[in-house]
User: Fold this.
Amino acid sequence: MQSQEDLKKEIGRYVDSGMPIIYIDTLEIGMYRNLIGEVAKRKHRECATWSLHGGLRSADLSMNSDLLTAVQTIESDLEGKVFIIEDINSQLERPEIISHLRHIAEEIAVGNLAECNLVILAPLQTIPRELELYVTLISTGYLDGEQIKERVREFCQENDCTEPVPDFMETLATSLRGLTETEIDNILALAISDDGRLDMSDMPLIRKQKQQMIKKSGILEMINVKETLADIGGLENLKNWLSKKADIYARVNEAKKYGLDIPKGVLIAGMPGCGKSLAAKAASKTFDIPLLRMDMGRLMGKYVGESEGNMRRAIHLTEASSPCVLWIDELEKAFAGIQSGGTGSEVTTRLFGNFLTWMQEKDSMAFVVATANDISKLPPELMRKGRFDEIFYVDMPKDEERKKILEIHIKKRRPQDLANIDLRKVVDATKGYCGADIEGIVREAIEEAFVAKKEHLETADLLATIERTHPISETMKDSLQAMKKTYENKKFANASLERG
Ligand code: ATP
Assistant:
């Protein structure tokens, strides 16, 4: 992140060169209002502001009004002014406001309105298409490691508390990454509120605060995981691969010294219901780090810039939470359609660009597990080396794998009955069944046995349930066959042993 002085200079240049709308993407409205005030003073400009709670305020005006009235009031008197607009996100739904702002921006752009700029202070969610041409976007970014340490030192001086020892300062700088200055100040204030000190005993509180922020963002979800690799039947190649990467993560400093790169992540693609999500969850347990799930549906916003803003926030929060596993579920939903050129494809392409650059340059301990069903619509760049460390293809479980899946699910619910079940017969009867189908059969057969007041689950209960059910490979036959062909052509690594 730039220093405040550099930022003032940058904004000063935009003010001088008559940029019609300067949009500062920030949550720290108060801080930036002051900063713009200082820039305006340096440039001998007057400031006017509008916010929902404060209405319109300038040197000679003070009225509680909505944005439309405020703009109509001040429109003819904007020359020589910097007009700061806050709380814009709720206002840009209104076409009459967009139209007024566009008109002012046009007047500035063609030179009819001299020495005037509109400054929007808001977290980036909304830039309507009509205004896009006139907007210069400033992303305020987050503090880097050195800046965080500097902020912690300043905080300690301001609050009369001892500076953390170097080791703890490093830990603190890592755990406060991805947070804004105000958020850092708030966490530090909370941390010293009990004993006036900053030390290791504050770490649980700092972690808890960060979890809250992740929740508040609404884009990422922290998932509690119980599943381990032992809960996955089959997929031995994938499981071995994940175990190796987990070992590197556990000894990452040693590994880096040895000349290894930090593992970036894996794309697990393939048949539905075959354990892809299960593998993402089990990865988190194996790596022994938290699991964050990125909800692509929530990421895609309806305004220009909204999705990218969300993606940036998601990436920062992920980095801030590292070490962690970032699970991107249904990757194809987010990035499909890039080649189609249809509506929204421009946004998707930019979003995709942000994601690729991050994947390419990432050197944090955020391990990405992306899962996808249909990869035929995914852009080929995503599958080039350098993005994911490996791409695995998950097929329908083979005989030996179905046996393991059966064992796992029977053991979970009726361990006492496992020895009496003729697994071979059930395996033979479940050709073409996926893991989720098999789990469903075990669940249903146990329910039937219970309702029939049987003392034990028997092979016949499972076989009777299989008789009544249709596996996914039957109900989705054509699309699954097409999918299989695509994967075979791509020659991805097989998640299962060849003779699974
Ligand atoms: P989708 O593509 O439809 O999201 P998926 O491949 O992610 O499917 P999962 O969500 O992992 O499939 O599987 C659903 C459930 O089926 C799992 O929670 C698990 O109980 C069971 N299951 C699937 N595959 C396996 C497996 N290989 N071993 C054990 N259980 C499995």
Residues 232-235, 272-278, 371, 373, 405, 408, 435-436, 439 surround adenosine-5'-triphosphate (CB under 6 Å).
